[in-house]
Design a protein that fits this description.
The protein is an alpha+beta fold. The protein has 15 helices and six strands. The structure holds ligand C2E, succinic acid (3 copies) and fe (iii) ion (2 copies).
């Protein structure tokens, strides 16, 4: 079946819309491959990406399937990339570069193939689109080549920006995690505190019906809640007993200190972390600190982290107190429903108690020696 230009255009538009909405990096390559396959009516399409060192090519076939990696020079794809030119090969088994081991492994018979190297905006080759087995016709045509070549420009750009975004994202998450651990490490709190607070926060976010994106952001931002503690003097931070009034006053500055460190950033994640640092000690009844916000004036991220933090703090030994048993914690939560804590969040906590306890079990502190 031959497509006319209108049909082709409609097809491309529908994919472009779909692909533009993809936020999950892992879903991008399979979707781009599907578009390539449909544009030229092939049975299969793979989008191969060259790694930074140009030593291997990788692809992802479908959601949930692992990445496939092959040496960069291998096969017809590698040859097309090395020679920087598109290739139509309508008798694959006669081509000296063809590597039939993939066919033997999959039991799939490759007959015709077209490969198009993809370029980024700096005209560097970043990978290739490979389509296999033209449907209903003898082989791929110069028209197919032109069409796929046009699409490959869009594909290359999508991949580049996605890789870039993923890199920025991963860098941010790593930094934020390290900063969170740093904030905790000066006090004698154990390393898993930040992990547990992250997981409790994510669970509460999910149960509150926040979007998947917000749930992920909060999970990565909540470990930063005590970042400001890095500026609290040791004598106060690690005092092996209860605070006096002056020590209490000094410690209370950690919320605003953390906020001041983070507030200048335009990044989504650091903005969320700034909110969490600032508002995690506010209370629903308006009696918290530093700004005596109340109710929904407190950002949902702050309300969630408050509950996650206190749940974890009460259940853990601290230099100034022993861990509480669960009944005592639950009693306090019931008393503080609508006082310290958002009543809806307390209800969600009790309705899903086992999930919180499962997280605590999974990330429990292990003591050596
Ligand atoms: P943290 O130990 O991570 O505790 C976080 C929050 O959990 C506390 O915020 C409080 O809301 C709750 N929490 C923890 N332990 C208890 C407790 O024994 N009883 C009650 N009712 N609530 C508890 P808060 O009070 O604003 O404290 C912030 C941070 O200040 C604490 O973080 C801890 O690092 C430090 N801190 C607070 N009080 C003392 C103290 O008396 N001595 C020392 N050395 N540090 C303290
Ligand atoms: C090749 O291009 O021959 C290797 C990749 C493949 O067969 O799918
Ligand atoms: C990491 O990125 O190193 C893990 C922290 C996280 O959960 O994002
Ligand atoms: C909200 O207030 O933003 C909904 C979740 C909640 O009530 O805690
Ligand atoms: Fe705090
Ligand atoms: Fe904490």
């Amino acid at each position: 079946m031959k497509r006319n230009a209108d049909e082709l255009l409609a097809l491309i538009f529908s994919y472009v819309t779909k692909i533009a909405a993809i936020h999950d990096h892992a879903r991008l390559l399979p979707e781009l491959a599907e578009m390539g396959r449909d544009i030229v009516s092939a049975e299969r399409c793979s989008v191969w990406v060259l790694d930074r060192e140009k030593t291997y090519l990788w692809t992802k076939v479908a959601h949930g399937v692992d990445y496939i990696k092959i040496p960069a020079e291998s096969g017809i794809v590698g040859n097309a990339i090395a020679e920087k030119r598109a290739m139509i090969i309508n008798d694959v088994y006669a081509d000296p570069h063809f590597n039939s081991s993939v066919d033997r492994e999959t039991g799939y018979k490759t007959e015709t193939m077209m490969v198009i190297p993809m370029h980024n905006s700096k005209d560097e080759v970043i990978g290739a689109m490979q389509v296999i087995n033209k449907k209903d016709e003898e082989g791929f045509s110069e028209d197919d080549l032109r069409h796929l070549n046009l699409a490959s420009t869009y594909v290359a750009e999508s991949i580049e920006s996605s890789l870039l975004l993923e890199e920025i994202d991963a860098t941010q998450r790593e930094l934020v995690y390290i900063m969170g651990v740093t904030g905790e490490s000066r006090s004698k709190e154990t390393g898993n505190h930040v992990k547990r607070v992250a997981e409790y926060s994510r669970l509460l976010a999910e149960l509150s019906g926040l979007s998947e994106e917000e749930c992920n952001v909060l999970k990565d931002a909540s470990p930063m809640h005590d970042l400001g503690k890095i500026a609290i003097p040791d004598a106060v931070l690690n005092k092996p007993g209860r605070f006096n009034e002056e020590e209490r006053r000094i410690m209370d500055t950690h919320a605003e200190l953390g906020y001041n460190i983070l507030k200048g950033s335009e990044r989504t994640l650091l903005k969320a972390a700034a909110i969490v640092a600032y508002e995690h000690h506010e209370k629903w009844n308006g009696k918290g600190y530093p700004n005596q916000l109340s109710g929904e004036e407190i950002h949902i991220y702050g309300r969630i982290t408050a509950l996650a933090d206190v749940f974890d703090a009460l259940g853990s030994d601290r230099v100034y107190k022993k861990a509480w048993d669960d009944e005592r914690i639950f009693t306090l939560f019931r008393e503080e429903r609508g006082e310290h804590f958002d009543p809806d969040l307390i209800d969600l906590f009790f309705a899903n108690q086992e999930q919180f306890l499962a997280i605590r079990e999974e990330f429990k502190d292990v003591f050596y020696g």
